[in-house]
């Protein structure tokens, strides 16, 4: 089954190295829970063409273009590019271990915490018990990717019996000055449901503090977009980072109608439209892609074709030969 929403990480010349680092962190910490390939591992590596690159891309001729990889069954994309963008805490991956399925969940979380911090990572919130989780940490690995690591609740009132032993959810942090997280989740659900179905809002908890200027500031909210869970929240204060192409969300489309629905529903910055990329009115970057993009990009002329388009035209990709 196609994972419709795929987080895409921007690396400065180190995409394959970074993907392998993440894969090994999950394998070493989670053992059999991570699963064997293809559950956790590099699935596909595409490369830049040898010819026809723009001047700023010529150094990448024949080098890695994109790495598709999976962590505990969750698919990710690593883009190999330059230093134009840098990952920051505005988008993280929340990894939750279900204590009802794993008796040693705390030990495994500590192992994953150590593995992701290895060789230059840093801790943004210390690994310890919090009001919202019996064990939690927020870390940034040496490549700049941030991770929220948690052992899920085992309270009697919390039904976690149907959750996977390991779940990974993209989590977006909005600047607290704008209070846009709830509106963004509602907008994304509406667009993705029109395009694919299988989209809905989940639990929404709002700030109750009297000093909040915006009554709709989201403490924490969840949604399912085309079958993929996501979460979002408004920061409790200002932040000196924000959304960029450093971490975008790919949307895998089977038909031109799906492409058109997503593009027309999300794109809000015409000057940001390039090669299937767009930016929505909340500042989040999206890549609208053919569902078979990994195979399509192996066809002669596919990369060059991509650079000529803003919104993807699937018929032009399909017309490419496989020779």
Automatic annotation (TrEMBL):
Pfam family, one: 3-dmu-9_3-mt
Keyword Membrane: no
Entry keywords, A to Z: Methyltransferase, Transferase, Ubiquinone
Any one biological process term the GO annotation gives: methylation
Molecular functions per Gene Ontology: methyltransferase activity
InterPro entries: Glyas_Bleomycin-R_OHBP_Dase, PhnB-like
Residue ranges occupied by any PhnB-like domain in the UniProt entry: 3-149, 168-289
Name of this protein: 3-demethylubiquinone-9 3-methyltransferase
Organism from which the protein derives: Actinomyces howellii
């Amino acid at each position: 089954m196609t994972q419709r929403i795929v987080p895409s990480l921007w690396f400065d010349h180190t995409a394959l190295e970074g993907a392998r680092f993440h894969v090994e962190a999950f394998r070493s910490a989670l053992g059999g829970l991570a699963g064997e390939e293809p559950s956790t591992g590099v699935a596909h590596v595409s490369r830049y063409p040898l010819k026809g690159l723009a001047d700023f891309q010529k150094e990448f001729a024949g080098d890695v273009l994109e790495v598709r990889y999976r962590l505990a069954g969750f698919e990710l994309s690593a883009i190999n590019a330059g230093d134009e963008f840098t990952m920051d805490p505005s988008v993280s991956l929340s990894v939750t271990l279900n204590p009802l399925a794993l008796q040693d969940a705390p030990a495994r979380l500590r192992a994953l915490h150590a593995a992701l911090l290895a060789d230059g990572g840093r801790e943004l919130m210390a690994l310890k018990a919090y009001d919202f989780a019996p064990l939690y940490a927020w870390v940034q690995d040496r490549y700049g990717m941030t991770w929220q690591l948690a052992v899920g609740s085992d309270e009697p009132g919390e039904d976690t019996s149907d959750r996977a032993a390991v779940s990974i959810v993209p989590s977006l942090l909005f600047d607290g000055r704008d209070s846009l997280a709830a509106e963004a989740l509602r907008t994304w659900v509406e667009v993705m449901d029109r395009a694919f179905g299988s989209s809905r809002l989940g639990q929404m908890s709002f700030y109750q503090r009297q000093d909040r200027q915006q009554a709709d500031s989201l403490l924490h909210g969840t949604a399912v977009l085309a079958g993929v869970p996501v979460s979002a929240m408004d920061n409790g204060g200002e932040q000196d980072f924000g959304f960029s192409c450093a971490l975008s969300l790919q949307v895998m489309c089977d038909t031109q109608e799906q492409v058109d629905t997503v593009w027309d529903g999300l794109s809000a910055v015409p000057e940001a439209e390039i090669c299937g990329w767009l930016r929505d009115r909340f500042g989040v970057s999206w890549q609208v892609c053919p569902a078979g993009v990994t195979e399509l990009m192996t066809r002669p002329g596919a990369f060059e074709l991509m650079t000529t388009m803003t919104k993807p035209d699937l018929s032009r990709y399909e017309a490419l030969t496989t020779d």
